[in-house]
Design brief:
Layout: E1 3-8, E2 11-16, H1 26-41, E3 47-52, H2 77-86, E4 91-95, E5 98-100, H3 102-108, E6 112-115, E7 120-122, H4 136-144, H5 146-155, E8 159-160, E9 172-173, H6 180-191, H7 210-225, H8 230-243, H9 246-261, H10 264-279, E10 297-300, H11 304-315, E11 320-323, H12 327-346, H13 352-361, E12 362-365, E13 376-379, H14 385-398, E14 404-407, H15 414-419, E15 427-432, E16 441-445, H16 452-464, E17 468-472, H17 478-497, H18 501-511, H19 517-524, H20 526-539, H21 548-554, E18 567-568, E19 577-578, H22 580-592, H23 602-622, H24 629-639, H25 649-656, H26 658-669, H27 681-689
Parallel strand pairs: 2-3, 3-4, 4-6, 5-7, 6-9, 10-11, 10-13, 11-12, 13-14, 14-15, 16-17
Antiparallel strand pairs: 1-2, 7-8, 15-16, 18-19
This protein binds 1,4-dihydronicotinamide adenine dinucleotide.
């Protein structure tokens, strides 16, 4: 039973009961319809209150039913809303806590709505690339007016119930602390005999000169919607609430909804929505695994990463101490943190009070004894195994038992690091992305001996730090950097074969990446990847790289920080200007290695960069480094600027069709540096089976 039925005097109370947020799944819809019919059949009942148990009135569609035939089984949400709207006895929606999506559409089908203050009211469908498809676009403007409804539907942002009091959305917003059901029953008794029954559908949307407003909205929305079609479709359907009769508006809404649900953009957004939820699940670490308390943290190293990581703890209200080797480095690190917060303060995004609180949570020390009682320590010292060894041996000797010892290493072997301690079960990788106080991604690197409680605690901590935690196994570069290496190698080969940095960047930015590989590396610093390559030349001499990047570094061009990299930069300006000097070097290098430069199409550029990610991603999946394809997509969406409307590299490959991806990979394998294109066995297998990475 997922809705309860009770009679209070002459009022029936139907309580949606489908934890956690009373999602309108099939069983809930069925029970609600039965409740309304039962109340109508009972002569003793004069009015009906519809409310929700627990933490919500209703959060809308049941996400467990998404993409399943159950979502379309009768009674559908449309049917339920029609039954409520056609009820011969007045229906009162009693709203509290959360009333979103289908939940709000259902409330709008009731004759009256009463609410407690503090309830979140929203039609957030646009965030999944959709529009409210059960009458929301037609009914909300009828109670809130065109402008307010349009803003809510196009943005998907929740509004608090009390801010909507006084509109026709609510007949009453009770004072805080009111017993909602009791007050709603009293309200229902009061209106029990009022006829005709008021219906939202019978109201008119009055907006003088609506065409001018709608045109203005189309222009503004178009400018910010980017590649996503849903926001503009929201405007058009809301427009129909003014220009069309109610039934025709509903039909139009249905048609546009069915169109949007098939668009790749909406499919990508829904994929990302589920991928984020999936990523926090670790198959052999059940959700009830006990976690350790994280009340105090420490960070080793106050450099680029250490400072940002410390800010994450402070932002989450966790006191954190940063340890450095020298007073000077410590002070520099702390000053950078202060400067970062000051800039947020100046922009008005942080109050003075919060600024003071956060700064007070961050301390510094040169002495390991000051951090010994921390519950977690994140090491962010130089990327050098020798330095890491010294730090972990020291941590092992001073940290209290049960403290989590985490490393922010981007490429080193977490199992080797763990072996420097007597407590490998407490060691884990926490790979933050730069800038660590901004980037959402946290790769959680699971060593072979990492304890399940340590994993569960770190995953819970990632949520507390507002990060998207994705579990990766141990390998060189983990999920993200191991894949980006193949992408960067292709970018380098493209330069040798005929491209210039600008052409490569423009092509992949047109595909939707936030930044092309050369602009990106100019920002991060070419010297960092140079150091990694030098190590690779020794460790893996068989792997070929374009030498152009080394030649660039030999010219002293490390990127923005040195005023020049692949591009030229002007002081105080982050814009990248093509560099004649660099372009000449690239063309000369092709001649030096005897490669005849050719015209390369944007399509080839995109395929070589993106399929390099996909092929390596397939290996990572097969080796069990990533738990699932959607985790790889999450890494790329949240850490590498992969276009959200394409859903991540593995999802994108699925939409292209794996046989098509494989055909390109096989073609590249016959070309120059074909050894980089050995098709991953999983790609070959899935392509042959007609499957996708996300539907194995
Ligand atoms: P950094 O060079 O900016 O900072 C390192 C800091 O550690 C310096 O302030 C240094 O004084 C301090 N340090 C060195 N040895 C120490 C010791 N024994 N005890 C205490 N402090 C010590 O380096 P960055 O960029 O912050 O990198 C740190 C770690 O994070 C590396 O493992 C790196 O691979 C990783 N990482 C770096 C990213 C980046 O974009 N910079 C991204 C993700 C991970």
């Amino acid at each position: 039973m997922s809705a309860d039925y009770q009679v209070h005097g002459s009022v029936a109370v139907i309580t949606l009961n489908n934890p956690p947020v009373n999602g309108l799944g099939h069983a809930t819809r069925t029970a609600a319809v039965e409740g309304i019919r039962r109340a109508n059949d009972d002569a003793a009942v004069k009015a009906i209150v519809l409310t929700g148990a627990g933490k919500a009135f209703s959060g809308g569609a049941d996400i467990k039913e998404f993409n399943s035939p159950k979502a379309l089984a009768e009674p559908t949400l449309h049917t339920l809303i029609r039954v409520a709207e056609d009820s011969a006895k007045p229906m009162v929606a009693a709203i509290h806590s959360v009333c979103m999506g289908g939940g709000l559409e259902l409330a709008l089908g009731c004759n009256y709505r009463v609410a407690l203050p503090g309830a979140q009211i929203a039609l957030p469908e646009v965030k999944l690339g959709l529009l409210p498809g059960a009458g929301g676009t037609q009914r909300l403007p009828r109670v809130l007016g065109l402008e307010k409804a349009l803003n809510m539907i196009v943005s998907g942002t929740p509004a608090l119930s009390e801010t909507l009091a006084g509109s026709a959305l609510f007949d009453e917003v009770f004072p805080a602390g009111t017993d909602l059901v009791k007050a709603a029953v009293a309200f229902a008794e009061k209106v029990a005999d009022v006829r005709p029954l008021p219906k939202v559908r019978d109201r008119k949307v009055d907006y003088p000169n609506h065409e001018a407003f709608l045109q203005f909205s189309r222009n503004t929305v178009k400018a910010v919607a980017g590649p996503f079609p849903a926001p503009l479709e929201c405007v058009e359907t809301v427009a129909a609430s003014v220009t069309k009769k109610f039934e025709d508006g509903l039909k139009f809404e249905r048609e546009r909804f069915l169109h949007l649900i098939q668009t790749p953009e909406s499919k990508s957004l829904r994929h990302a929505f589920f991928a984020e939820r999936e990523a926090s699940k670790i198959p052999d670490v059940p959700s009830d695994t006990p976690t350790r308390t994280i009340a105090r943290a420490a960070v080793i190293g106050a450099g680029t990463m250490g400072g940002g990581i410390a800010m994450n703890f402070a932002n989450a209200g966790i006191p954190v101490t940063i340890l450095e080797t020298k007073q000077e480095a410590l002070e520099k690190g702390l000053a950078t943190i202060r400067k970062n917060y000051e800039s947020t303060l100046k922009k008005g995004k942080l109050t003075q009070e919060k600024f003071d609180q956060r700064m007070a949570l961050i301390g510094g020390t040169l002495d390991y004894h000051d951090i010994a009682q921390a519950d977690i320590v994140v090491e962010a010292v130089f990327e050098d195994m020798g330095v890491k060894e010294a730090v972990f041996r020291k941590l092992d000797s001073v940290m209290k038992p049960g403290a989590i010892l985490a490393s922010n290493t981007s490429t080193l072997d977490v199992d080797r690091i763990a072996a420097f301690t007597q407590r490998p079960q407490d060691v884990i990788g926490t790979h933050f992305f730069s800038p660590a106080n901004v980037m959402k991604l946290l790769e959680i690197v699971r060593g072979k001996e990492t304890g399940k409680d340590v994993l569960a605690t770190t995953m819970a901590l990632s949520k507390k730090l507002k990060k998207t935690g994705v579990v990766s196994g141990v390998c060189d570069g983990f999920i993200g950097n191991r894949m980006i290496e193949q992408y960067s190698r292709q970018a380098g080969f493209l330069l040798e074969e005929g491209c210039l940095p600008e052409q490569v960047d423009k092509a992949i930015e047109k595909f939707g990446f936030a930044m092309g590989p050369f602009r990106m590396i100019d920002m991060a610093g070419n010297d960092i990847s140079w150091a990694i390559r030098k190590r690779r030349y020794i460790e893996k001499p068989e792997v070929a790289y374009s030498k152009t990047a080394d030649l660039l570094c030999e010219m002293g061009r490390f990127g923005q920080k040195t005023g020049g990299g692949w591009y030229d930069y002007k002081a105080g300006d982050r814009k990248a200007y093509p560099s004649q000097l660099v372009n000449d070097m690239i063309v000369r290098h092709s001649a030096d290695i005897g490669v005849e430069r050719r015209k390369i199409s944007d399509q080839e550029i995109v395929e070589r960069l993106v399929y390099a990610l996909v092929n390596e991603g397939a290996l990572i999946l097969e080796e069990g480094i990533a738990q699932r394809a959607s985790d790889i997509d999450m890494v790329y969406l949240t850490g590498y600027g992969f276009p959200l409307f394409r859903g991540g590299p593995m999802f994108y490959a699925d939409t292209v069709g794996l046989p098509n991806v494989l055909a390109s990979v096989e073609r590249f394998a016959k070309g120059r540096h074909g050894e980089a294109w050995k098709p991953a066995p999983l790609l070959v297998k899935l392509a042959a089976e007609g499957k996708g990475f996300n539907s194995r």
